[in-house]
Amino acid sequence: MPKLTVDGIGEFEVPAGKRLVLALKEEANVDQLHACGGNARCTTCRVDIIAGEPQTISAAEKTTLEARGLTDVRLSCQVLCDQDMTVKAISRLEGSGRSDCGSDPTPEMQPQPVEWVEK
Ligand code: FES
């Protein structure tokens, strides 16, 4: 099982292929935001990947990051835990002023069909 290290929080074994947003919530117990429910639209699920960043990216994530002018972050709803990774949780409910983290992301990547492209 891949190891997920969350800076300042701990290390966690994660089922291979699990969406990072769900691993942050369920394994690491992080109050990770995911306002659009894991559909690559809101960017509140953004994380800083310190090590082990996947070199592929979904076309949906790439389009959204480019549209918002975001660099050096990844959308945790669009990243699968298929290798060891170290991340910093930079978009959390605490301090956000929001009332909740957002609707629950599905276990499967959204939007479907997923098109993987080079980062
Ligand atoms: S972009 Fe909205 S939850 Fe990932």
Report on the architecture of this protein.
This protein is α+β, with helices and mostly antiparallel strands and 119 residues long. The protein has a single domain, classed as Roll (Ubiquitin-like (UB roll)), CATH 3.10.20. Helix content is 14%, strand content 26%. The protein has a five-stranded mixed beta sheet, covered by helices on one side. The structure holds FE2/S2 (inorganic) cluster (FES). The site of FE2/S2 (inorganic) cluster (FES) has 13 residues, from loops. FE2/S2 (inorganic) cluster is lined by residues 34-36, 38-45, 75, 77.
Keywords:
single chain; 119 residues; alpha+beta; Ubiquitin-like (UB roll); five-stranded mixed β-sheet; binds FE2/S2 (inorganic) cluster
Largest sheet: 5 strands, mixed
Number of discrete helical segments: 2
Strand content: 25-35%
Radius of gyration from the CA trace?
13 Å
Please state the overall shape, judged from the principal axes of the Cα atoms: globular
Number of domains: 1
Distance between the termini: 24 Å
The low-confidence parts are none
Helix-strand sequence: EEEHEEHEEEE
> Under the CATH scheme, which architecture would be assigned?
Roll
| Class by alpha and beta content | alpha+beta
Strand tally: 9
Calculate the mean pLDDT score and round it.
97
Task: Report helical residue fraction.
Answer: 10-25%
| Ligand names | FE2/S2 (inorganic) cluster
Strand order of the largest sheet: 2-1-8-4-6
Please write the CATH class name. Answer: Alpha Beta
CATH topology (fold) name: Ubiquitin-like (UB roll)
